[in-house]
Amino acid sequence: MTDGQILLLADIILILHFFIALFLTLGLPAIWLGYFLNWNFARNPWFRYTHAGLMGFVTLESLAGMLCPLTTWEASLRRFVGMEGSNHQQSFIAHWVGELLFHDFDELFFTFAYAVFFLAIIVTFFLIPVERQRKKQEKKS
Fold first, then answer.
1. Angle, to 10 degrees, between the axis of helix 3-36 and the axis of helix 107-127?
2. CB-hemisphere CA count at 13 Å for 13?
3. What would the pLDDT profile of 17-51 be if each residue is shown by its tens digit?
4. CB-side exposure of 95: number of CA atoms within 13 Å?
5. Which DSSP state fits 131?
6. What are the start-end ranges of the H helices in 37-141?
7. Which is nearest to 64 in space by CA: 5, 114, 137, 11?
8. How many CB atoms lie within 10 A of CB 94?
9. CA separation for the pair 22, 10 (Å, rounded)
10. Is 17 helix (H, G, I), strand (E, B) or coil?
11. Domain boundaries, the chain
């Protein structure tokens, strides 16, 4: 694999990381908006359990003091080609997506924010329950 291919892989991981963060961030407001606008996905079990599971994972890794595996993998790829800490050599994608995704706040801030957000997701399960498959099958009968 060439250096360019490795950097492309690192950029792809960064973009994937960004979209996962976007899904986590916008998922909860989308559930509430979907509930009020009667959108089906607001009660979709796949959407809801995936959202809660990912946020639970992020919260647990933060509580354990671990870095996200995607961050670690991306950084390892960049380090492998000698790009650790060299912002002037970053690709357009790495620069701007990195600016959107990574912020220079205290780790405790993120841990607290993740825990509060995860708690809000769990509370939402009680306030806007997931639609069960049996109900759909019963309606068809």
1. 40
2. 17
3. 999 999 999 999 999 999 999 999 899 999 999 99
4. 7
5. P
6. 45-63, 69-80, 92-101, 107-127, 133-140
7. 114
8. 19
9. 18
10. helix
11. 3-140
Return d(Cα 39, Cα 34) in angstroms, integer: 5
Inter-residue contact 51 to 78 (CB < 8 Å) = no
Nearest-angstrom CA–CA distance, 130 and 26 = 18
Q: List, in order, residues 6 or more apart from 61 with CB less than 8 Å away.
A: 67, 68
List the structure tokens of 107: 């780790």
Whether the pTM exceeds 0.70: the reply is: yes
The three-point CA angle 113-117-123 to 5° equals: 150
61-114 tens-digit pLDDT: 999 999 999 989 998 998 998 876 555 466 666 766 776 677 677 889 889 999
